[in-house]
Amino acid sequence: MKKLNVYGLLILFLFIFSSSYGQKKTFTGTIFVFDSIPVMNAEILISSSKQIVKSDSEGNFSFEGILNEKIKISADGFVNESQKLTGDSNFYKVNLNLKNSKKSQKLAIDSGHIKDSDQFSTLILYFKNNTDYSHYTDALQIIKDKYPGVRIEDNGVIIRGRQSINGPINAIIEIDGIIVDFDALTSLPTATIKNIKILTPSSSGMYGSRGGNGVVVVKTKQGVRK
Predict the structure, then answer these.
(1) Mapping DSSP to helix (H, G, I), strand (E, B) and coil, where does residue 117 land?
(2) Which neighbouring-strand residues pair with 168?
(3) Backbone angles phi, psi at 165, to 5 degrees
(4) CA 218, CA 195: separation in Å to the nearest integer?
(5) Cα(31)–Cα(81) distance, integer angstroms
(6) Rounded to whole angstroms, how far apart are CA atoms 80 and 102?
(7) Is the pTM value of this prediction over 0.85?
(8) Residues 70-125: pLDDT tens digits?
(9) Rounded to whole angstroms, how far apart are CA atoms 196 and 5?
């Protein structure tokens, strides 16, 4: 009789847990660029239902989702952003980054994502001349945002596809004119970074055979002042 009671309680507990785990909740948020300009008509894809909702003229959005599922935010001219609905908060502030392309600014405006195009253009010019990467955790995050096609894996940066089975495939890393290892790149304080450029193998001939897999060129603020 006691065993039946234990089994009954166990089944009841599992039922309650599974019901609450799959229960939908309302999530809201706002999408910005430069932490201040709303991004409207951005698409938010909810993974469980494949439903797509769009942000309004103030960048706000609202949808029903399930805890621990992922959403994908996309807008023309911007790098895609993914978020996991952890349940720590029902509100999500999303800051999108412009793609590293000359056409991204025009594409974002022409696609109807930016209401105040003058302020948007002013901030692009400002951040271009006064780049601040301090909000990034490390240099790898900067590379992922600026160069979505570049891969970070196997303790290295891969600019081109895997073309060698036995030979090295990682790009070399240069910081202020000095070739360094991967650890030096990951430990570099982001607040000190002035710029990061990716040189593909076709444009890294000045490095000789060492640049055969491309080059990650980092300039720090201290190095620029030297």
Answers:
(1) helix
(2) none
(3) -85, -45
(4) 6
(5) 10
(6) 17
(7) no
(8) 899 999 999 898 888 876 678 888 889 888 777 999 999 999 999 999 999 988 88
(9) 64
